[in-house]
C-alpha cells in the first residue's frame, strides 16, 4: 500500500526558489550597484554542452576565428551547469577530481566532451534605480536587491578594485554599457568615487532594510545546479551519446550549411565557443569571461575620471585598473564597542555595517 500523508505544514518539504531576481544587463544598458557583501559565495562548476543532433545527424555550422578565417564545427546544445562533485580540497589543489566526479573523469579521458571545473561566484548586490540611458539616480531614491553571478575573470577585476579603493561599500560600481546580447553580459566595470547610498540617513535606512529583507541565503543556486551523482551520470551519458553520433558523422567539405541558417547562427555559436586552436567549450555566456579572457581583451576601457574625485551622482566612473592611488586615512583612536543599532542614522561610520546587515554572524 502506498504511503499517505496529512495536509499539514509539518509535512511540507523545503523547496528551492530558482526564480530569484538576477542582475542582467541588456544591450546598451548600464547599471549602478554597490557590493555590501565583502565575501561572495563560490562553487566549482562544470558547464556542459553536447553536439546538436537532428534526424540522427549533427548540425554543422561555419564559425569565424579572431583573424577572420572560417572553419566548420559542430553546433552545440547547452545541457546544464552543474556543481562539481569533487572534494573541495582536491579541487583547490589539483583543479579536478576524477575519482569523485563523473564530469571530471570525462574531462580527463575526453577533453573535447567536457572541461575541468571552474570557480563561479555569486553575491547579493544593491542596484540603484537610475534614469534611462545612464547612471543618474531617480527621484525619489529607490534600490533593489539582486543576485549577481560571475566568473573568475570578473572576480579578479573586483579584487583589483578593492586593492585600489579598500572598502568597496564606500564606492559604487558602474557596470556597462553592455556591449553584447543579454546572454553574453559583456560590459566594462568601473569604480565611482562615492557610494550614493551613504549620502544621507534616509538612503542608508532604506538601503539596509531592502538588503536585509530581500537578500537570499543560498547563493550556491546562482553558481550552478547541485545534483545527485546518478543524475550527473545521466548527463555524462547523454553527452557521450551525442558525441558518438557526431564522431560517426565527421565534418567534411561537402557539409551543407544552408539548413542551419548560414552565417547568422554560425556567428552566434562562434561566440559560444573559442577558436579552433582551443578546445570546444560549453558555456553559458558568463563563462566566456573565464575562458582565456575572450571578452576581457576586447572590452573598451571606461572613461578616465576627472581630476576632482569628489564627484556627484553623475560623475564619470574610474576604470577599475586605473583608479588613482587612495590617500591613507588619518588614524583615529578606536571607539568603544557597543551594540549595533538596527537603523543607520547618518553619522555612524561604515565599520558597523556588517552587524547592520546581519553579516557578522
Question: What can you see in these coordinates?
Answer:
With 361 residues, this protein is an alpha+beta fold. The protein has a domain at 39-167 and 218-290. It has 8 helices and 12 strands. It has helices at 88-94, 102-109, 152-165, 201-214, 220-223, 229-248, 263-272, 353-357, and strands spanning 31-34, 41-51, 53-54, 57-58, 60-64, 70-74, 76-83, 118-128, 143-151, 173-175, 189-191, 318-319. The radius of gyration is 24 Å and the shape is globular. 36% of the residues are buried. Residues 258-348 have low confidence and may be disordered.
Describe this structure in a few short sentences.
23% of the residues lie in helices and 18% in strands. It is an alpha+beta fold and 361 residues long.
How far from one another are the termini? 47 Å
- Give the overall average pLDDT: 77
Backbone CA Rg:
24 Å
- What is the number of E strands? 12
Structural class from helices and strands?
alpha+beta
- Along the chain, the helix and strand elements come as EEEEEEEHHEEHEEHHHHEH
Detail the poorly predicted runs.
258-348
Count the DSSP helices. Answer: 8
Helix residue percentage: 10-25%
Largest beta-sheet characterization: 8 strands, antiparallel
Beta-strand percentage range = 15-25%
Anisotropy-based shape: globular
Oligomer: single chain
